[in-house]
Design brief:
Keywords: Coiled coil, Membrane, Transmembrane, Transmembrane helix. The chain has two domains: 354 residues, no CATH class; 62 residues. 68% of the residues lie in helices and 3% in strands. The protein has 14 helices and two strands; from the N terminus they run H-H-H-H-E-E-H-H-H-H-H-H-H-H-H-H. The chain is globular, with a radius of gyration of 28 Å.
């Protein structure tokens, strides 16, 4: 038993190191050339945030393995030698909340500050914003915790009489209690009036985690519901809309000339907006124009990439075209596999969470059977389904960001991602990772039973005063399913059409 626990600790340390190295690799390869050899603090925050998010996702499978470490213990106290998962959960999510609400906003304010200002002025401006946010959040959390920071557990008060120790016991289904009086010790036979409400105050760290989970759950139900459908369908319809053949040189020159003109117009518009920003006129109309320019810039980049795909150049032009075709075939395969996973997720939510009592354990039973085949197979599948939800959230945020004015666009591109986009997406991943864990702990409650995560997210959170009704009536799960269905209908109706940019900057037909 001790050897098993030691191995679990070693695996946890090795995984943390691998996650850190992987995140550094992502940062180095995704960062924009303008950010090389500078912006070190935002980069540190990005690596730390991604590491916390990924480790928190991996902690749920580790929690399951930690529970199994002492399940068949042959001596008392074996569970004391396992990882202190509840303390680790609280620590990770307190760090998560600090990063999302304080550290990342400070890094974004500092990075996006006027470059004409000195470092001290930018830090002062960023600190003022963060301190104001901290005061508001602190007062709000303190007031809410003082007023409604309690959990209400519904319990059944059971009791029985006492008697002398008998020589034989006469218990049966008709006589479950001592004595022949009212059967108040039987939960099955006791009257409904025996139900009581047991109220206790939750700890402040657990309350902070709960409120962060609520904020994340709102975003998760919106972005995740949209993303669970648009992630696989976007890949499939990208294959359907793929370029079918290479264009001629004259067509390429014509399109490239048009794109050059539109790029100049876009630069002129961006310079005008920058002048307005420096003059201090940053009103609603200015923000709307910035959003429009960002959309046009993204569309222009997509047009350039599409043109390069349709007319590969250089000595290895044929090889480049062959790789393009293979890339679209890979999107088709990944889209079909993703669609299977998305359908499995939606079916599991309906079968196991929305229908009471559940029709079947479904994926819970699949993970248990996979564990029977090989010890870690079910755990790996479990972790994959959790990661898939995070990918769905990012896909949903990107889709809605391109269509809704009030959502800022922060695309992630290989070798061309600015630090503010990095920070925004890391904050989104961190905020939604809490809800993904809570959602998975609930959806896979049969597989992840008796874990520290289920104790925090399954009992305390769902019994918290003022919040429990959101979980009692499955508000987030219903919103998730409805948005997934609407997104599927949208893609079925319009997904097959080739995208056309709106506005002046448009690829000529």
């Amino acid at each position: 038993m001790g050897d098993f626990n030691l191995a679990l600790i070693i695996v946890a340390i090795v995984v943390c190191i691998i996650v850190f190295i992987f995140n550094v690799y992502l940062l180095v390869n995704y960062q924009h050339p303008d950010d090389k050899n500078q912006a070190y603090f935002p980069k540190f925050v990005v690596v730390l945030g991604l590491s916390v998010a990924l480790i928190s996702i991996l902690m749920l499978p580790a929690d399951v393995a930690n529970r199994q470490a002492c399940r068949r213990a042959i001596y008392n106290g074996a569970c004391n030698l396992t990882l202190p998962m509840k303390d680790l959960w609280i620590a990770v999510y307190i760090i998560d909340a600090l990063l999302v609400f304080f550290v990342i906003p400070f890094a974004m304010f500092y990075y996006e500050g006027d470059q004409d200002k000195t470092i001290g002025q930018r830090m002062k401006s960023s600190l003022l914003w963060v301190i104001t946010t901290a005061i508001v959040c602190g007062l709000l959390l303190g007031i809410l915790y003082g007023l409604v920071g309690k959990v209400d557990f519904t319990v059944m008060h059971l009791s029985s009489t006492t008697t002398n120790f008998p020589s034989s016991w006469d218990f049966s289904s008709n006589q479950p209690c001592i004595g022949s009086g009212v059967h108040q010790c039987s939960a099955y036979l006791a009257s409904p009036s025996s139900e009581k409400t047991w109220t206790m105050r939750t700890t402040f760290p657990e309350y902070v985690v709960a409120l962060a989970t609520i904020v994340g759950s709102v975003l998760f139900s919106i972005f995740g519901g949209v993303g669970i459908a648009c992630l696989p369908l976007g890949l499939i319809f990208s294959f359907i809309r793929r370029p079918k053949a290479v264009i001629t040189r004259s067509q390429y020159i014509k399109e490239a000339t048009e794109l050059g003109k539109k790029a100049k117009e876009l630069k002129k518009a961006a310079d005008a907006l920058h002048q307005e920003e420096r003059s201090g006129s940053k009103g609603r109309k200015w923000r709307k124009n910035v959003k429009a320019v960002e959309k046009e810039l993204l569309q222009l980049e997509e047009d350039v990439n599409l043109l390069e795909e349709m007319y590969p150049q250089g000595e290895k032009a044929e090889t480049a075209w062959a790789l393009t075709v293979l890339g679209y075939l890979a999107k088709l395969v990944l889209g079909i596999l993703g669609l299977i996973v998305s359908v499995a997720w939606v079916a599991h939510i309906v079968i196991y969470l929305l229908i009471d009592p559940p029709l079947s354990p479904f994926l819970n039973e699949v993970f248990i059977k996979l564990d029977d085949i090989w010890g870690l197979l079910g755990t790996v599948a479990f972790a994959f389904f959790c990661f898939y939800l995070l990918l769905a959230v990012i896909a949903g945020a990107m889709m809605l960001g391109l269509r809704l004015v009030f959502i800022t666009i922060h695309p992630m591109k290989w070798g061309a991602t600015l630090m503010n986009s990095f920070l925004f997406n890391v904050a989104l991943i961190l905020l939604c990772s809490i809800s993904v864990i809570q959602f998975c702990a609930t959806a896979f409650g049969y597989y992840a039973q008796a874990t520290a995560a289920q104790e925090i997210f399954g009992h305390t959170l769902q019994s918290l005063r003022g919040i429990k009704y959101l979980y009692k009536y499955n508000v987030f799960q219903i919103a998730f399913i409805v948005l997934a269905g609407l997104t599927f209908v949208y893609y079925a109706a319009f997904g097959w059409r080739r995208k056309k940019p709106s506005g002046r900057f448009q690829l000529s037909s």
